[in-house]
Write a structure and sequence with these properties.
This protein has 174 residues and is mainly β. β3 and β4 form a beta hairpin. Strands 1, 2, 3, 4, 5, 6, 7 and 8 form an eight-stranded antiparallel beta sheet that branches. It has two helices and eight strands.
Length: 174
């Protein structure tokens, strides 16, 4: 993990040296909003023990802020800040020695990100980012019974994680 962090930081500094400030002023600054529909198919397996799978349907959204640069200053703002999240709901089917269908599941996730804009070419901007995230999963088969008579229960999972990635933005021809 330490090597990955060292590599990522080194890459950021190497590529930052090739940035052209005048091009960065042309890319969208200030506030950006995204909202969308997110279908997914999930599978959870414990080999030789059980499996669970089903369709999930949800929404995701993000709010991105890139501070505008002052046109009277030579200082270029390169920071990017984002908060994004998603919520999905669906029903999954459980299979072990018995079967249980239509178990209600939902997932909630939120994360905060910070990044640094880097120009690679006159039409390509990329932004390495890092942050912190939280994910909650609820799988509630409480009160349900499998085909072999086993009783279901509510399962909750909580995850805190640190996202690390790179966003690419390519400017279309104008």
């Amino acid at each position: 993990m330490r090597r990955l962090i060292t590599f990522t930081i080194s890459l950021i500094f190497i590529l930052a040296g090739h940035c052209r400030a005048e091009v960065l002023k042309e890319y969208p600054r200030s506030l950006g909003i995204e909202l969308g529909f997110e279908p997914s198919y999930i599978t959870y397996k414990e080999p030789g023990v059980m499996k669970q799978r089903g369709m999930m349907y949800g929404i995701h959204g993000s709010l991105t802020y890139r501070p505008p640069s002052d046109p009277l200053s030579d200082e270029i703002k390169r920071e990017m800040f984002r908060i994004d999240g998603r919520f999905s709901y669906g029903e999954v089917d459980y299979e072990n020695s018995g079967k249980l269908n239509n178990i209600p599941d939902f997932i909630f996730e939120i994360r905060g990100l910070a990044g640094y804009d880097i120009i690679k070419t006159e039409k390509t901007l990329f932004t390495p980012y890092y942050g912190i995230g939280y994910r909650y999963l609820n799988d509630d088969s409480g009160g349900m019974t499998t085909t072999t008579g086993a009783k279901g229960y509510e399962r909750e999972s909580n995850y805190f994680y640190s996202p690390l990635g790179i966003e690419f933005i390519t400017k279309s021809k104008s």
